[in-house]
Amino acid sequence: MPRQIQIDFVSDVSCPWCAIGLKSLQAALAKLGSEIDASIHFQPFELNPQMAPEGEDLVEHIAKKYGSTAAQVAQTHETIRARGAELGFVFDKNKRTRIYNTFDAHRLLHWAESTGQQQELKEALLSAYFTEGRNPSDSQVLEELAARVGLDRERARQILRSNEYATEVRAREQSYLSKGIHAVPAVILNNRYLIQGGQPVEVFERALRQAAAES
To answer: N or C, which end of the chain is more exposed by having fewer CB within 10 Å?
Structure first.
């Protein structure tokens, strides 16, 4: 009988290492096959909660936030691109030139959890931003992505035009901050094991096996 594991994947849709971490986690789960019955819950985290609606130039933002030079930013982008390619995920730095507020995306993800389509929406959001360079704070983009994964577009529009799920998302964000989560991805197995960062597939596989053995 497969061992059940709850996975809380704390992340932001504008975090490249979150995309890498998710792909690595999925690859590890595929290697374990029927040994594990995993349920993944995507939990909200905002890298830039005060970001203005129009966003910021990505290179300027990183330089200001981390003190990185243009050359350092370019090197990081290449590292991320290569890691993504190894996992079958495309990072197109030529299309992704800005960084945006992601709160509305998290509100839709919160709703999608109740419909069983949260993972599909998460993957669509990551691809839309990192591969297609689309704006994850744009209501039209969010409505389109919701419909693409089978969610009701009119319901998505209704949520985006209101403050629905805002309180719930803020509460979850604060809950993880209060637990010491200040960088993402943070992958929590069975509320007990923490895997931090976009780790290689092997790291996730070992952690999953350990969690399964002790579950």
So the answer is: N
